[in-house]
Amino acid sequence: MELFSPAFWLALLNVVFIDLILAGDNAIVIGLAARNLHPSVQKKAILYGTGGALLIRIVATVVVLWLLKVPWLLLVGGLLLIWIAYKLLADQGDEHTDIQAGTSLWTAVRTIIIADAAMGLDNVIAVAGAAQQHLVLVILGLLISVPIIVWGSTLFIKLINRFPWIIYVGAIVLGYTASNMITEEKRLMPFFTEHPALRILFIIVVIVGVVIAGYRKRSASSKAQGERQRSYS
Fold first, then answer.
1. Which of 22, 41, 126, 205 could form a disulfide with 37 if both were Cys (CB 3.0 to 4.6 A apart)?
2. Does residue 104 sit in helix, strand or coil?
3. Distance between CA 90 and CA 171 in Å, rounded?
4. How far apart are CA 203 and CA 182, in angstroms?
5. CA separation for the pair 205, 225 (Å, rounded)
6. Which residues contact 164 (CB under 8 A, 6 or more apart)?
7. What CA–CA distance (Å, rounded) separates 184 from 74?
8. TM spans, by residue (predicted)?
9. Planar angle of CA 82, 84, 87, nearest 5 degrees
10. pLDDT per residue over 98-146, tens digit each?
């Protein structure tokens, strides 16, 4: 992929979109960790915490990029990303009540960095796959998406709640990225190169499977939650 070619910009857009789609939990963590601080200190805690989390995210993604060059790990990464795409649709979201608010600047910063590192594995794998093992794409994508997550996270979460179809678009993009990773595994690539129709069919099956399975789980969870609310009332 040539630098700043149309394919490069398309891949960069893909990286940013995936990171934003998967950033809802991270944005919530940032808010919860800094909620007890004075407003004048909150901005510093968010800025420092996000900066530290960004550095860790870049290092972790670079490591994953290197690991994906190991035989069969591109396949493993693709399978993990299929699971992440499914969970994106299936999960109804957590309350994150276990995230403790910091009482000082550096306590909040530490909480943000640790929580983001613990919760950011899905982002790292997804971004590494979407970047097609291109380091510049990883760094640029994260540098663009992280500030949006910090300053526009509330707006983005509201958009997702108002337009649920955005989640499905995200799952489709993740499903495509995952299936593309699998077909680019060096041990499998010759087969898919010889049979391009099967490659297209495989990608379609993965995407459709992720959407259907995630939709069914999401619908079942919503139905169960509604029944519990009716029983309480």
1. 41
2. coil
3. 10
4. 9
5. 30
6. none
7. 8
8. 6-33, 45-66, 72-90, 111-129, 135-156, 163-182, 197-215
9. 110
10. 445 555 777 777 777 776 666 566 678 877 888 777 888 888 887 777 7
| CB distance 60 to 67 below 8 Å | no
Cα separation, 47 vs 42, in Å, equals: 8
Residue 209 has, within 13 A of its CA and on its CB side, a CA count of 13
**Which single residue is written with the structure tokens 């029944």?**
227
- Give how far Cα 85 sits from Cα of 98, 140, 149, Å: 24, 23, 19
Residue 17 amino acid letter: F
Distance CA 26, CA 70 (A): 29
Count CB atoms within 10 A of the CB of residue 96: 14
Q: How far is CA 98 from CA 88, 110, 111, 198, in A?
A: 21, 15, 11, 46
Terminal-residue alpha carbon distance, the chain: 58
59 pLDDT higher than 70: yes
Query: Tokens 């996000």 appear where?
Result: 50
Q: Name which of 66, 215, 54, 72 is nearest 149 in CA terms.
A: 54
Dump pLDDT digits (tens) for 174-232. Answer: 889 889 889 988 889 999 999 999 999 999 999 999 999 988 988 887 777 777 767 76
Average pLDDT of the residues in 143-155: 66
Which residues have C-beta within 8 Å of that of residue 145, sequence separation ≥ 6? 15, 16, 19, 20, 23
Provide the token pair at 50: 């996000």
